[in-house]
Amino acid sequence: MKKSMLFFLILVLAAATAFTGGSNQSASSSNVTSMPGPMGKYSQPITLHSARTIDITALVDPNDPAIRSFTDNRWTHTMMEYLNIDLKYSWVAVDNDSNTARWAAAIASRQLPDFALVTNQVYKMLLDSDLVADCTAVYRNYASDDYKALGDDSILSQLIFNNVQRGLPLFSPAYMNGPFLFVRQDWLNTLGLKYPVTMNEIINTARAFQQAKLGGDNTMGLMFSANSGDGRLDGFMNMYGAYRDYWIEINGKMAWSNIQPQMRTALLALQDLYKQNLINQDFAVTTADLANEYVASGKTGIFWGISYAPVTSMTALYDNDPKAEIIPSMVRGLNGEEIKIQIGGVSVGKVFVNKDCRYPEAVMKMLNLADYLCRTDSYN
Length: 380
Description:
With 380 residues, the protein is an alpha+beta fold. The chain is built from 16 helices and 13 strands.
């Protein structure tokens, strides 16, 4: 299903779902069995303990083996089937604050899980307590070439202290931080419209959605937020060749994007859409939570967003309306031409590996596996 492929695209590499069980996708055995690289299966099952924070918006169903719980799902099944790794959890926290408190207590008692994706704050606590494993050899010998290609030495240096790599990196490719265009495909089908590509097509489609009141009396043709990954202004501005809060190169020199003529053109276009009432009138003060609600409640048909940001809102939308379907596409220029989009740099999540972990290479194998499944589209 297209919805499943969307979740595959925006979840797998952006989050630590490879070892936290957050994805509801499954591996295709025909592809995984011929997988290249250092991903050999253990001859006997091994057990690794991790820790995580629950995403209370994630969909679980005790009657569905694929998403039975946060610790019993297709991802945990995949790790067992193809690597013989049995994932357990030392704790599952309800929010980041309680998770940090659990880590503080675990550090004090030295009762730590084998590995986990941790925040910078927790990573520093673990590092200062000399509890993070030396993973220099593990990364060198077990990270696949494709996984290594996701980052570079400058990114990896965030984990290197005194020439020793402490823990493992969870790379987030730069393109994942760029804007995508999201459109309600089911609304297009209802009105017999094609997926919009040019700016004129996007505006006309938004107007048609609004006039048909497909999201109710207060349908938003376009939804924007100055404070959220849903409704990003930069995707809209990029179509005009404008880049928000960005240093760009012009004639060999660095220049601030917000004062370029393209930005003025984009802002005037935004103003015109506001006057036509085609966008939410509160966009300047629309918080991330409110933008999420607008998508989840089915009030908007088109918005720009960071690749993985709409996961929560779209999950809620599909729960509310099983017939809903949102399709993403790359951002193009005003006339549909290829353009340079605005992205952040490659970021790295810090994967803590316990100094006392018996199988530190197993953590790297799980990262390799998740990367392989994503790159090769090995999903049912």
